[in-house]
């Protein structure tokens, strides 16, 4: 009996290895592909959504925009065409949550610095203060990579409409020149301009989740 097992030991090991490989391949084939949710206005807390969109359940995308970045360049949706991007809302003179959010954006920028598929977009909510020159000064202080990350200013109503009607990221209150959107939300947008996730820009664990979700989103291509 021992002689029999010694004789066929090699073949038994090979059979076990081949079986393990086959089982792994079958598991990978049958395993459901992980996908991120596509968020619609109806999926989001009503306080973050414009009242005109509360019951929208499909086809929501980020609206076209035209804003100006830290270098005085006009930035539109075409600059983000076929790109995954992370959007947020901030202002350079903020002393509360914005510095933490910006530090986390810097972390994302550095983590994905060699990934040309992913960009960043930060909108100032005080365009009357955050001129191109002010944004440039802030960008230099924070180490912003101009090729990857746009800090944008422009018409205040357009920015606020983007926050409430497109990114679904700020409390829905009537617009006024004295109004101030202050949101910690980072919004993950896919290549089709759809929202795929919301993250707390002040929370380190949430940023880890964002980076992990970007990997999942890239696999959808």
What does this structure look like?
This protein has 221 residues and is of the alpha/beta class. The chain has two domains: 1-31; 41-218, Glutaredoxin. It has helices at residues 2-30, 98-111, 132-142, 156-166, 204-218; strands at residues 66-68, 74-76, 84-90, 118-124, 149-152, 185-189, 195-200. The strands form two sheets. Strands 5-4-3-6-7 form a five-stranded mixed beta sheet. The chain has a two-stranded antiparallel ribbon with strand order 1-2. The longest helix is centred in the N-terminal third of the chain and has 29 residues, at 2-30. The radius of gyration is 23 Å and the shape is globular. The model has no long low-confidence stretch (mean pLDDT 87).
Protein topology:
Blueprint: H1 2-30, E1 66-68, E2 74-76, E3 84-90, H2 98-111, E4 118-124, H3 132-142, E5 149-152, H4 156-166, E6 185-189, E7 195-200, H5 204-218
Parallel strand pairs: 3-4, 4-5
Antiparallel strand pairs: 1-2, 3-6, 6-7
Number of H/I helices: 5
Uncertain runs are none
Q: What oligomeric arrangement do these chains adopt?
A: single chain
Strand tally is: 7
Largest sheet: 5 strands, mixed
- Give the proportion of residues in helices: 25-40%
What attributes characterize this protein structure?
alpha/beta, Glutaredoxin, 2 domains, two-stranded antiparallel ribbon, 221 residues, globular
């Amino acid at each position: 009996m021992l002689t029999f097992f010694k004789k066929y030991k090699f073949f038994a090991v090979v059979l076990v290895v081949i079986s393990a490989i086959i089982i792994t391949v079958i598991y990978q084939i049958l395993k459901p592909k992980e996908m991120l949710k596509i968020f619609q206005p109806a999926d989001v807390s009503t306080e973050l959504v414009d009242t005109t969109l509360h019951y929208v359940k499909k086809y929501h995308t980020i609206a076209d925009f035209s804003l100006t970045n830290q270098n005085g360049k006009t930035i539109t949706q075409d600059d983000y065409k076929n790109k995954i991007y992370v959007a947020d809302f901030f202002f350079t003179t903020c002393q509360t949550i914005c510095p933490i959010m910006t530090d986390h954006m810097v972390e994302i920028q550095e983590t994905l610095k060699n990934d040309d598929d992913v960009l960043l977009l930060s909108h100032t909510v005080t365009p009357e203060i955050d001129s191109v020159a002010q944004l440039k000064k802030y960008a230099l202080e924070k180490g912003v990579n101009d090729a990857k990350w746009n800090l944008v200013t422009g018409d205040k109503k357009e920015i606020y409409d983007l926050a409430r009607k497109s990114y679904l990221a700020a409390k829905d209150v009537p617009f006024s020149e004295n109004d101030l959107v202050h949101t910690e939300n980072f919004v993950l947008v896919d290549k089709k301009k759809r929202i795929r996730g919301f993250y707390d820009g002040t929370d380190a664990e949430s940023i880890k989740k964002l980076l992990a979700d970007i990997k999942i989103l890239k696999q959808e291509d």
